Amino acid sequence: MKKNIDLATIKNFITANALSQDVMLMLHPKNFDKLILTGGKKIKSLCIQGINIIADNSNEVSEGEIDILEVKFS
């Protein structure tokens, strides 16, 4: 995966992996910050094609990677 993650990259990733709304995507904080700062104000999450995008605060995702998290509903 390339280091620069933009909206087109995420949309292509969602389509290529046939993701549905039962997952979330997690990005390295640097990638997330670059993505949301282009909009002008700081936010904590983003929703693209019904899928929430969040920053990794646990240091698990490498820069330039997108991690898929399954969402469990009780």
Could you explain the architecture of this structure?
The protein has helices at residues 7-16, 29-37, and strands spanning 23-27, 45-48, 51-55, 66-70. It is an alpha+beta fold and 74 residues long. The chain is globular. The protein starts with 6 loop residues before the first helix and ends with a strand. The mean pLDDT is 86.
Order of strands across the main sheet: 2-3-1-4
Q: Calculate Rg over CA atoms.
A: 12 Å
Which structural class matches the secondary elements? alpha+beta
Query: Approximately how much helix is present in the residues?
Result: 25-40%
> Could you give a short account of the major beta sheet?
4 strands, mixed
Outline type: globular
State mean pLDDT (0 to 100 scale).
86
Strands, count: 4
Q: Which regions have little confidence, pLDDT < 50, spanning 5+ residues?
A: none
What are the secondary-structure elements, in order, as H or E? HEHEEE
Q: In DSSP terms, counting alpha (H) and pi (I) runs of 4 or more, how many helices? A: 2
Strand content: 25-35%
User: What is the first-to-last residue Cα distance?
Assistant: 33 Å
Brief digest:
The chain is an alpha+beta fold. Helices cover 26% and strands 26% of the residues.
Keyword list:
alpha+beta; 4 strands
Topology:
Blueprint lengths: L6 H10 L6 E5 L1 H9 L7 E4 L2 E5 L10 E5 L4
Parallel strand pairs: 1-3
Antiparallel strand pairs: 1-4, 2-3
